Amino acid sequence: MALRSGTRLGPYEILSAIGAGGMGEVYRARDPRLNRDVAIKVLPASFSSDPQRLWRFEQEANAAAALNHPNLLAVHDIGQQDGSPYIVSELLDGTTLRERLRPGALPIRKAIDYGQQIACGLAAAHDKGIIHRDLKPDNIFVTNDGRVKILDFGLAKLTRSDSTDDGQALTQTVQSDPGTVLGTVGYMSPEQVRGKPADARSDLFSFGAVLYEMLSGKRAFHGESAAETMSAIVKEEPPELTETNRNVPPALERIVRHCMEKSPTERFQSARDIVFDLESLTAVSSGAVKPLAAARFSRRWVWAATILAILVFAALTWQIVPRLLRGSPAEFTPITFRNGHITSARFAPDGQTLFFSAAWQSEPMGVYSASRGNVVGQSVGLQDAELLSVSRNGELAVLLSRHTIYAWERIGVLARVSATGGGAKPEVDNVGDADWSPDGSVLAIARYVPDRKIFRIEYPAGTVLYETQGWISHMRFSPDGTRIAFLEHPNVGDDLGWLSVVDLHGTRKVVSPKYDSVQGVAWAPSGKEVWYTGADLLLATGLSGNPRVVLRMPGRLLLEDIGRDGAVLIRAGDQRPGLVALAPGQRSERDITWLDWPILLDISADGKTILFDEAGAGGGPQGYGIFIRGTDGSAALQLGHGYGVAIAPDGRSVLSSTMSVPKQYLLLPTGAGEARPITHDSIDHLGAQFFPDGKRIVFSGQEAGHAPCTYVQGLDGANPRAITPEGTWGHLLSPDGARVLVDKNGTPLVWGIEAGNGQPVNGMKTGETLLGWSVDGRLYVGSNDAAGWQIAKLDAATGQRQPWKTISYPPLPGFGVRELLITPDGNAYAYRYLLQYAHLYTVKGLR
To answer: Hey, what domains does the chain have and what are their CATH numbers?
Structure first.
């Protein structure tokens, strides 16, 4: 029975009816306490007697109340009167997306805009553990000023509640029984149709169906009956978008298709990925990536080509780029001119002086100062130091003895030093980043915890605000000192990630989409926006999300700082990795780089094949591409998507892991066949290696709430067996399969798999890296400097060592070798190099 005007529900006075749906009736009402109009959804008395409907209504209230995002309906209050519960929410002026679609397809620009807003709202809900499960045009509202709001979380699946007072998250799963179909026919995901549990990826399928309808004006799945529609969802593909709208760009159609993959594992894995891809359509178009031709280079020609690449890039930097910049309304002023590698830069408190750390030519990393009026950089007398932050009092926070944990992650000793000179005072070890509080009195730090393999933000040192199993970079205090913005990278070894903000009470919020590469953070002087660089774009976002593009330009762009006058300090340049291998029986190395951003993962025991991921554009829209390639320079073969792990001894398969969390292992055939999952558990599977017989693997893994350890598991899907205690982990297996190299609190051990204990590695020198096993049971150890790798064979028990080989590379600025893999017999090896080249600019006029 409809409520009449003047009826009171608690403090609210009903004004008029707005509409009705399957979950209740909606009214316009007046809140006299705040002198505003609100919307009230009331569950009729006949419905409230139904426990299932009442439970779903309460779910809507609980789900919606947990959300606060501009693209989600805001809930103000909840109550009950005469047995009828009700929800009070903001009152919207506009219409549903269903009404907007009645005339037909939307303009492409409008569809992309609405799609971005819907995806942002879903991302915010999913971050809270809330899944909508009934996304459709009827549940999407478009206000008169073009804002999109997602309505009706009546079918929402609450998977996580708020944290308890001690900061430990509770886990609460509330779902329908298996076999129960919830949702709306035509927009349900295949797993919903089958009555299986649905996670956030189900919402992404529904989103794809909605986006398809916005672009085509027709439903993606529509049959003569509900049964036919559900069958189409499971078995059929919707018609090509170009059949109804020839103006749809191929890249946009790919996004829609990727959303509506039948298998959840083949779809986008998060709504933030969709936001980023849609933003890319409006921000910048990327050219096709072509494989590099396989060529037989001698070492001389490898380095000649490398030097030529540097010269070409230098020409681009100093000729083409300035011409482009002159046409920009912004004013660019170069700060550095020497050839080298720059790692960080900051404005001094006066806004005219700046400090930066750089390695020129073959010189070691040092800290320099320059003036915006006099750009000749002067050393401040700090060597082997990297700048982190400059206080308002002119004191520098620097990183000493910097070393790399893996790929991008570097740590060292935090030290303080006066900008006017003097010695550096060491403060804290295992620090990755730091920033001064606005008053210049205390440092916030990102500290690595070796025994737990985690990063955490501490302010002040020792007081934990936030921690993550990934890694943290580019911390920056807000101007008012109430928040710290930082970049959060979930995966060890790459710079994929997103921008997060944490307040001084430890409440953390993600405020950006996920990017394949994200580095560089600074607050706008007003404190209302955080600027950052992701996917080679300079972006800005408020604390509610919805980033906007500030600047795009050729080459790699990285934000360093923003001055009080709004001047922006950027690093513009490029960095390119490549792969080099020495094949068995050969005397000269060969450059076997394939696409744009390879990550070297394994080399076969015979030295004829390498395994690598392509983490850049070459990986494709689904993310990382898994490849194998012969060290003889033969063409690469893509095996699938995910993370490559190890090559099987017989070469017929490759172990890989999924990109989901927790990561699970699959076997990918190198010839004919299908991928085969071999793990189905709650362990987050990390690195692994095959036993010599190819029937078992040893791997590093970590369960939630526990420190990582080492496991052994058969390929038949049997349960894994932990062979080390928590906090002791590794997977470098000896050639005989009896021992494995592990790490315990930063100390390397040789662990007997059957003995169940570890022995220390004797004879290692400071700064050396364990590279692998020799066929005779000794260890390859090496040190990496500007000249190359100095490698020796080490007997771990006695500490006796024998020089083995020097792998040298040219003294080029910004050139360094990363991963190095050696076969047990020493007849072949492969490594990844990184060539970095950059200059600093100050920029005025950016908004």
So the answer is: 1-91 (3.30.200.20), 95-283 (1.10.510.10), 299-570 (2.120.10.30)
